């Protein structure tokens, strides 16, 4: 898959811009703050419906406007697809596929697939667990778009359940609320189980690729790994194994993610229901849901220690890059069974790396079908990424 044309209207700093692209490597060069990242952000948003820079859509709209348009023409195996995404300030975003009637924005998910590397990726290691959960969920939705609905359902139920729990803290909780909470428990257990089951499977797919990518980028003196830490597992362990016969020790004899991996979605649902019941008193006291995928952690391990807090700056960068590369390799696995190879986007990454890491990363990604790179100066780009150069100027492209 590659992007043949990108058009933006009222997106970030651009009133209107058109960018023609081609397979292989394209480097967008321009001074810092001139809008290179805005172009890459638009492509990433088209793929994931989220920005790697901000959590809300408002900043994506050019100041003083109430909507932005992102249009892209994609080529996959000789077939062209035109995607249009309308980002709105006061109503739901909408999309179009091949100029058809408007559809929900999330109906575009899975059509344009990207892996985006950016300086913000440091938060994957150094930031709080929400950054790593978001990483997993965005990759999950790219691979299996129907899980966008799973995430949405879970977030909706979590919000309603937390509102009920908060009512208890303000003294407005009644017997009727208690019955309603039982109903929300069932809904949240089912949605949470589906999300947890999918995340656990994804982590198992990522782990060997993460280890391999880290070895490619470094001298191989330390091994990289990841472990999914679930709040549900903690409840099962505290309860002495609340699911009789379901928990199976992992191969190294330690309880953890492999226990949960042996459970079906229905078994996870039942376990969540029991966990909600066991934690209800604490949840009513605190006014918040204490068990669920929103409380889980993807622990990144380097050697014998957690990467967070123990990795050096260089190791942190290598781990972040390895996570993105692992995503790319997982997508390539899917491409071999009928999916499409993702577009690689490296947004101002090389300026952050030493010469050795620059060359190793460039050598790894150079064979991708399409690689889009941004840089302030040509000198930041390794020789391994020779390709077309595009100059970005204020408000547009210098052809």
Notes on the structure:
- The protein has 399 residues and is α/β, with parallel strands linked by helices.
- The chain has two domains: 2-113 and 340-398, 3-Layer(aba) Sandwich (Rossmann fold); 143-299, RecF/RecN/SMC, N-terminal domain (Glutathione S-transferase Yfyf (Class Pi), Chain A, domain 2, Up-down Bundle).
- It has ten helices and 15 strands.
- The chain has helices at residues 36-48, 123-126, 129-143, 147-169, 175-217, 231-238, 257-261, 265-286, 313-335, 355-365; strands at 2-11, 14-20, 24-29, 67-76, 79-88, 94-97, 103-104, 114-117, 224-229, 297-302, 305-306, 343-347, 370-375, 388-393, 396-398.
- The strands form three sheets. The protein has a six-stranded antiparallel beta sheet, covered by helices on one side. Strands 8-12-13-3-14-15 form a six-stranded mixed beta sheet, sandwiched between helices.
- Strand 6 (94-97) and strand 7 form a beta hairpin.
- Helix 5 (175-217) packs across helix 8 (265-286).
- The model is unreliable at 241-258 (pLDDT under 50).
Sheet with most strands: strand arrangement: 2-1-4-5-6-7
Strand content bin: 15-25%
* Portion of residues within helices: 40-55%
> What is the tally of beta strands?
15
Largest sheet: 6 strands, antiparallel
The residue-averaged pLDDT reads 90
Produce the secondary structure layout.
Blueprint (H helix, E strand, L loop, with lengths): L1 E10 L2 E7 L3 E6 L6 H13 L18 E10 L2 E10 L5 E4 L5 E2 L9 E4 L5 H4 L2 H15 L3 H23 L5 H43 L6 E6 L1 H8 L18 H5 L3 H22 L10 E6 L2 E2 L6 H23 L7 E5 L7 H11 L4 E6 L12 E6 L2 E3 L1
Parallel strand pairs: 3-13, 3-14, 8-12, 12-13
Antiparallel strand pairs: 1-2, 1-4, 4-5, 5-6, 6-7, 9-10, 10-11, 14-15
Helix pairs in contact: 4-5, 4-8, 5-8, 5-9
């Amino acid at each position: 898959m590659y992007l043949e044309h990108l058009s933006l209207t009222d997106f970030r700093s651009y009133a209107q811009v058109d960018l023609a692209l081609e397979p292989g490597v394209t480097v967008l060069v321009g001074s810092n703050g001139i809008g290179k990242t805005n172009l890459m952000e638009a492509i990433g948003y088209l793929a994931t419906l989220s920005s790697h820079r901000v959590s809300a859509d408002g900043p994506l709209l050019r100041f003083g406007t109430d909507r932005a348009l992102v249009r892209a023409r994609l080529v996959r195996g000789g077939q062209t697809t035109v995607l249009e995404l309308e980002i709105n300030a006061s109503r739901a975003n909408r999309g179009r596929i091949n100029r058809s009637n408007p559809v929900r924005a999330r109906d575009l998910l899975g059509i344009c697939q990207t892996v985006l590397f950016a300086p913000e990726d440091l938060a994957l290691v150094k930031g709080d667990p929400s950054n790593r959960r978001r990483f997993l969920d965005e990759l999950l939705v790219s691979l299996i778009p129907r899980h966008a609905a799973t995430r949405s359902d879970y977030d909706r139920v979590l919000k309603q359940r937390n509102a009920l729990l908060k009512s208890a803290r303000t003294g407005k909780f009644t017997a009727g609320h208690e019955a309603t909470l039982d109903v929300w428990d069932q809904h949240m257990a089912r949605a949470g189980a589906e999300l947890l089951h999918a995340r656990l499977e994804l982590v198992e797919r990522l782990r060997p690729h993460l280890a391999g990518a880290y070895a490619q980028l470094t001298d191989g003196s330390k091994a990289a790994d990841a472990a999914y830490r679930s709040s549900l597992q903690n409840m099962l362990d505290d309860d002495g194994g609340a699911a009789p016969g379901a928990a199976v020790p992992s191969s190294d004899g330690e309880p953890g993610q492999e226990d949960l991996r042996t459970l079906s979605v229905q078994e996870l649902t039942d376990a969540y229901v029991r966990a909600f019941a066991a934690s209800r008193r604490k949840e009513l006291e605190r006014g918040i849901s204490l068990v669920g995928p929103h409380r889980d952690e993807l622990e990144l391990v380097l050697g014998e220690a957690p990467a967070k807090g123990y990795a050096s700056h260089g190791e942190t960068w290598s781990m972040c890059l390895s996570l993105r590369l692992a995503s790319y390799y997982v997508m390539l696995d899917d491409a071999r069974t009928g999916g499409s190879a993702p577009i690689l986007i490296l947004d101002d990454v090389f300026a952050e790396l030493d010469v050795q890491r620059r060359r190793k990363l460039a050598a790894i990604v150079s064979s991708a079908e399409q690689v889009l790179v941004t840089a302030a100066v040509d000198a930041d780009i390794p020789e391994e990424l020779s390709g077309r150069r595009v100059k970005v100027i204020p408000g547009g492209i210098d052809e």
